Amino acid sequence: MLKTILVALDSSGIAERVIETLNDLVLPKDSKVVLCHVFPPPDLEMELPADKPHSDSPALSYLQIEKQLQSYQAQLPVASEIELVTGDPAEEIIRLANIYKADLIVIGSRGLTGMNRIVQGSVSGQVVEEAHCSVFVVKLN
What we know:
five-stranded parallel β-sheet, UspA domain-containing protein
């Protein structure tokens, strides 16, 4: 039975699909969903592409992400919480799953292949390998 579901969301387009998929699941009324977002530590931030808009203020980004998670939270038919943390995404997702004793982790996959997957790594792949519970990977397509 799914009592606690950890939903890992990033700021990419896959987040909407992850929430849609979560809403398609039949969850018991006493379930709890934990929506989480992991910010990279300042010293590990990757260079931002020139063609993507970005904020000069980390606080503004934090508030934007928090507001987005609150809008997702309002769509959920069960109790929920929000966790905003900083660190290595896969490690933090696994840590939160352990803290909340999650029965399921729901995470999106960006579908990286080839050299991009090698260079950037696969957060969802690492979570699948290291999590102590089931992991539901949502693909964009």
